[in-house]
Design a protein that fits this description.
Radius of gyration: 37 Å
Largest sheet: 7 strands, antiparallel
Helix content: 40-55%
Structural class: alpha+beta
Order of helices and strands: HHHHHEEHHHHHHHHEEEEEEEEEEEH
Distance between the termini: 75 Å
Number of helices: 14
Strand order of the largest sheet: 10-9-8-3-13-12-11
Length: 363
């Protein structure tokens, strides 16, 4: 343990040689003091260091040079090598270590340059596999193996473990791409048991996992009505509306006939000529996407309604045979006619609405 008084005296008597810097563990600084001691500048700087050390608060000194804060030793800096060796030791000793965890530690983690602040994420990477196997029942056992294997424990171990366990339950529930009311209620109960405040209410779960909630609702014919300026038919509900959507039609266009080869025109008599030479005809087809304009789209439980200016386009859901989603829209393949593309910044929501309505209609 470094002593502030000792450091101050070394700075006063031997500051010109940087001995106090070597004592405090600042070896690079100490070398500079030695290299430039002949200039007497280090003597002056050493005296300033003496004053600073003498006036420094004891708690600040202990925190800065002994890594002790309020009388408690702070965890030492965790290096990448220590993480790798520690996790490897943990997995080798823990009897239920999964192959995924071993592969992560032996092949993936050594290639990563981890900063100390990312240690929690690295721990979670292999803890996740263990939790999926053991659930919450063996938390204390895993915690003990962690202590023995890593020689340190993250401060947020218990909360991290609870969060990961909750995530494994959610992952299991949404494996079918849907989240039903019973599963939502179950998640609320589990969140309360684990002390995860964020998800202790149904509204937050519906908000964060809205995509899966809406999938279940669509599969069960539950559609929330959206205001529209189109006239709806009987038993028809508008479920999606956006005023900035571009409609494109995909067509195969045949290029004009090309001619190649020598040719001549021979005059036989007045008003009568004869063409001689060779002709070569070629055609080519090209797929083009022709914009029909940017306008308002309304997705209903029976139709897709698009309006750009004075022109309306209607696609019946019963005519849709396939959908190809993009991040910013989707392509619609119909039983007759050319495919059309809808470009929408809310591509995922647009696809979900059309796909859900088609499934419900065919259902």
């Amino acid at each position: 343990m470094k002593n502030r008084t000792t450091a101050s005296l070394l700075a006063f008597f031997l500051g010109g040689l940087g001995i106090h810097q070597f004592y405090l563990g600042k070896h690079i600084k100490g070398i500079f003091y030695v290299l430039f001691c002949w200039t007497l500048i280090p003597v002056f700087i050493g005296f300033i260091d003496f004053i600073i050390l003498l006036a420094m608060d004891e708690n600040r000194f202990q925190t800065k040079y002994n890594n002790v804060e309020n009388g408690v030793k702070r965890p030492s800096k965790i290096t990448s090598a220590r993480i790798v060796s520690g996790i490897d030791k943990f997995l080798s000793e823990y009897p239920k270590a999964t192959e995924e965890s071993l592969n992560f530690t032996q092949n993936v983690l050594p290639t990563m340059t981890s900063a100390p602040e990312l240690v929690g994420n690295k721990i979670q990477s292999f803890m996740y596999d263990q939790i999926k196997v053991s659930g919450m029942d063996e938390k204390d056992e895993i915690k003990e193996y962690l202590k023995n294997g890593l020689n340190f424990m993250p401060d947020n171990f218990d909360s991290s473990y609870a969060q990961i366990y909750f995530s494994t339950i959610v992952e299991e529930y949404i494996a079918d791409e849907a989240l039903d009311p019973d599963e939502i209620n179950s998640l609320v109960v589990i969140a309360n048991e684990l002390g995860i405040e964020k998800y202790q209410n149904e509204e937050q779960i519906r908000l964060d996992y809205g995509f899966y909630v809406k999938n279940w609702e669509f599969d069960n014919g539950i559609f929330k009505e959206v205001p529209t300026d189109f006239i709806m038919n009987k038993n028809e509900t508008c479920i999606y509306r956006n005023e900035q959507v571009e409609l494109l039609e995909q067509k195969e266009v045949t290029n004009r006939i090309n001619y190649a080869g020598p040719r001549a025109r021979v005059k036989i008599m007045k008003g009568l000529s004869y063409n001689v030479g060779s002709y070569k005809y070629s055609t080519s087809k090209e797929t083009k996407r022709l914009s029909k304009g940017v306008g308002t789209i309304n997705i209903t439980t029976k139709r897709i309604l698009f309006k750009a200016g004075q022109k309306n386009t209607t696609i019946r859901l019963s005519a849709i045979v396939d959908l190809e989603p993009y991040s910013d829209g989707l392509m619609i393949f119909k039983s007759t006619g050319n495919p059309v593309i809808l470009m929408d910044e809310n591509g995922a929501e647009l696809y979900q609405s059309i796909n859900g309505a088609v499934r419900s209609l065919n259902g």
